[in-house]
Structure formats: C-alpha cells, structure tokens
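Quick illustration, no need to memorize.
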Amino acid sequence: MLACRASTMENGENDKLIAFSPSPASPPNDELKKLLHFKVYKRRWFVLLVLCLLNCSNATLWLTFAPVADQSAQYLQVTLSDINWLSVVYMVVSIPLSIATTWMLDTVGLRATLILGSWLNMLGGVIRIMGGPPGDEFSINYTVVMLGQTLAAMAQPLIIFTPTKMAALWFPEHQRATANTMSSMANPLGILVANLVSPAVAHNSDRIPTLMLAYAIPACLACFLATVGIRSNAPPTLPSASAEFSTSEPFVQGVKLLLKNRAYLVLLLCFGSGVGVFTCFSTLLDQILCVQGYTNDFAGLCGALFIVFGIVGAALLGLYVDKTKRFTEAIKINMALSSLAGIAFSVVCLMQQQSIAVATVCSLFGFFGFSIFPVVMELSVECSYPVGEATSAGLVFISGQILSIIYIVLLQSLATPVAESLRSTCGLAPQSWKVSMFVLAALTTLFTCVFIIVFHTRYKRLEAEEDATYGHARDNRSAAPTPASINT
C-alpha cells in the first residue's frame, strides 16, 4: 500500500514534506482488498435453496404423467397422445415466452422474476387438482389439468433462465460456477424424482389425484419461501466487480451484440445441438430399447443413470472450473468424450442382451455430456460480457429447445416399422431406430468437431473484473506523488 511519510522542518516557519512511496511490506493482495472491498452474505445460500426447490418442483410438474401414462390416460379418460401433450406443452409454451423472460430478468430484476415464476408454478400445481379432490366421485377434468400444466410451463423459463443471473449477483467469482451448477442441476434432479415417485405412488389410476397433490405441496412451499424470503434483486454489497455491471447493456442492444459475436454464435449452435441430442435421448430411450427386448424398467434405470451421473459430473466439473477458470478446455474435452459415448450408444442399443454395456454407456453419456450444461451457461456469459446474463444464457436455451423439436421430428421420420418379434417388449408397433441412431451420432460428432476447431474466446467478464481491481490499483500508483514532485 502507498505509505505516507511526513517530516516537519522548522526554518522560521513550519513546512510539511509529505512523501508517498510504495511500502515493500504490503503485498499486492492487501492493496487490492483495501482498494476494492466486496462482501458476500449468508443469505445467498437461501436464494440458491429457493431457486433449487423451484427448479426441482417445476420439473416434477412437467413429468408428472409421463412415467404413468397408462394410468393417467385411464383416469382422465383420454388417449396416450393427449397425455403426451401434458409434457409437450412445456416446450410449446416456453419457446415464445423465452424472449420475454430474458428481457424481464435483465430489466425488471431477479426478485420479481423469481416471485412471478414461483406463483405461476404454484398455481399450476394447485389448479391441476381442482377438478375434484382425491376420493371425490367426479374425476379430475383433463382440460383443468392442461390449464395447470400450461401455467407451470409459463413458469419454466422464468425459473430455468435464472441460475446465471443469481450466481452473478449473489456469489463471488470463485463460487459462481458451483452455484450455477447446483441450481441448474436441480431441474434434472426433479426429472429423476418424477421418474421414481410417479410409478411408486400411482400404482393404479385411482392414485393419480394423490400423485398430483404430492407434487403441489413442494410448489406451494417454494412459492412461500420466494415471496417472503427474497427481498431484493441483489445483496447490499455486491460480491464481485462484474456484478456492478450485470445489466450494463439494454436488452435490444445486447441481442445485437450477441448476433455480431462469432464465438457466441458458435456456442449457440453447437450447444443447442447438444441439448437437442440429449432431449432426443431422454424422450426416445424407451422406444429405442424395447425393440431389442429391453423392458420398461430397464429403460427407466438407464434414464436414471443418465441423470444421476450427469449431476455427479456437473458437480465435479463445476468445482474444477471454479478453481481453474478453464471453461473452454473443460467443455471441449467433455464434448469429445460425450461424442464417443454417443457413438457407442448408437451401436450397443441395436444389440440384444447387452444390458451392462447399455447401462454403462448411458452413464458415461450423462457424466460427460449432461454435466457441461451449467459450465456452458457460465461460458456464454464470459464470451458475451457485458450483455446481461439472462439474455446470453437464455438464447442458448432457446436454441436448444428449437433444435430439440427439429431433432425429434427428424429421428421419428427416419424410424421404420418392423415386424413383430418375440424379443420386442414394445407396447405399440415396434420401429427400427438404426438409421436414426447413426444420424444422431453423426450430428453429435459434427457439432463437437465444429466447436473444438472453431470456438475461441476471451473471458471478458473475468478480464473486466481484473481490470476493475488491478487496473484501479495501477492507476492509483501511477497517480501517486513522489518525494521529488511534492513541494509545499
């Protein structure tokens, strides 16, 4: 730190000579802490908890009926196609609302967005059971359930776009990736919960109302905690230099900057393709495996392994990136390994009696591929700074949603009917997914190669934080007066 030495010389009148010189005993880190002081608050963990609970609850509302489609169709007296729409409505509603959500997060603020999302999520969960309580002689109406699903679907972008914004405003730079990982991975955790709880609770169609009531309770709890507990958009003292400029670019100007950012556009396309691949994997897994004689229980196990290993991989990768800041290297390595796992799956899923191999490949696919989602969200902010976090991360999510629909339609169109066989466990007419799987592996490999070769970027947010700290310190040192230049 600049040390001040004062000496008084008496020559008939009192004069003061003030000399400024760097103190060799003061290390740069001490100087940094005194020049710029950032503070973190324990309340940040409460905000993180609320966001995790909202993400998990919204995912359980999304997939309430998919694991028990037969029982749901029987209870609601509709077709299986109608039951599928209770899940598809999430995708249909979230795409047009995503732009409005990114604007709201970066303009209105984190608190209002989370509270609105929590109320929509709660209303969606409660309205679904308003057609008739458990045990009532009147069945719950399908239209009422669809209305509840639609409200919960409107809440999804308000909740799922928030992790990067929350991490930037409430957490210091060495905890941002970890906080983003925890809040983002709460969504697949909710998917896993739905896949385990729905079949366990709804043994028969009469238990469907009880199942919906069970999922409404966490939604109400999350809404209460968000409304009462989240009192501000950001803490009184920001945790990092970049948090002060978290929304330094207006929304429209931010979108224009993103469209001119080559690195961001590569990330948008390649990771959007990755989201599409994983959506296809999760959606079509049961249909792909049943042709080769694998049971629904085994397909559910593979889906669970995919999610569990993905959450474990995300936790480990988040901690690694927080310590090293090697976003690009970590993503490129994981994308390459996940592509190899995808190619392996496209081969082993066409074989019979290879349960161990299929389960292992699904686990590796989740561990290397699913785990990069939160790190990519952080990288999208780093390469596009000072564009708002919600805008940069939100457009990546929108790209993934659009490509998911395209990929599902493409793969289903490439599947061809096959004759019934004794080994098939499919409830409906079995289809051959051989061409579809090879196309999926080719798409995964193509976009992975494009990303590894083409993507290069500076970490603009980290550079801005370094400049705001060390640059300010250098300016103070250069402006400090020296003994030779100070006279009184």
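The longest strand covers residues 2-10.
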